[in-house]
Amino acid sequence: MKKALVLGATGGMGYSIVKELAQRGVKVVAFARTEEKLKKMFGAEPNVIIQPGDAFQLKQLESAANGIDIIFQAINLPYADWKQNLIPLNEKVIRTARNFSARIAVVDNIYAYGRSNGKKISETTPKSPNTRKGKLRLEMENLYKQSGVPYVIAHFPDFYGPYAENGQLNYLLRDITVNKKARFIGKQGVLREHIYTPDGARAIVELALREEAYGECWNIPAYDVISGEEIIQIAREMTGYKKQVGIVTRNMLRFLGLFDKQMREFAEMQYLAEEPVVLDGRKYEERIGPVPRTAYVEGLRKTIDSYRK
């Protein structure tokens, strides 16, 4: 891989993918809507080419893709836009890759797996989505599988890390860091996975470099499961935060959804806060190598530090 295009470069995973590629000496085109954010994040990176644009505009996508070897699809659309835009967006990404004989590495979530069966979820677990968004993610996955374009699809748990502003933990940590009233989404005692975005970036970049990884889905687990109570305690010790942390319940999200379309969509996925899907990473470990795993104490510290700059 000599040159890569990262779509959604200012999002949490997109940012980390750009940084990982640049550190490996790969020339990277960082593509996102806002030039100001791109310059803030990557202006000092010698291996990064900043290219603002709209991924829904095919000509702008093709301009960014000229001369690249692989497209990292890390765009994270707002939930409320999924029904209308998720499939058309990825059709444009596929068309662009086909036109330039490029490969695609897709950042995906766990929604298509549906409800947990009480065991760790492997790549051979049948996908049985129980939500509208899960069904859309499965439709998106099948789009890539039927495209004829070389692809890898990486399934990740919830993100946290620098610039992962849509992550549930970032929602909590941002307010704790600035000593605001903070809220945890879901039950604090439930053990769940949260992947540190630089770990996820290392994993998907490694997959993209491996010929044998293409044409398959890959599960990328987090460091381990952890409860909300443990996360809050770690954050308190790091920041000196003394305020009570509130709880955002599913019913609260439904109520907020009466006034906010994004909150209404968010409520649908809150079964994951009660019945967590935990990923099995044995396939990656057996065929690629150790799954990148940053301990929560270190990952949370670096995320908190990103809000102190």
Automatic annotation (TrEMBL):
One of its GO terms (cellular component) is cytoplasm. It holds the Pfam family NAD_binding_10. GO terms for molecular function: aldehyde dehydrogenase (NAD+) activity. InterPro entries: NAD(P)-bd_dom (IPR016040), NAD(P)-bd_dom_sf (IPR036291), NAD(P)-dependent_oxidoreduct (IPR051783). Residues 8-157 form the NAD(P)-binding domain. SUPFAM superfamilies: NAD(P)-binding Rossmann-fold domains. This is NAD-dependent epimerase. It comes from Oceanobacillus indicireducens. The lineage of its organism: Bacteria, Bacillati, Bacillota, Bacilli, Bacillales.
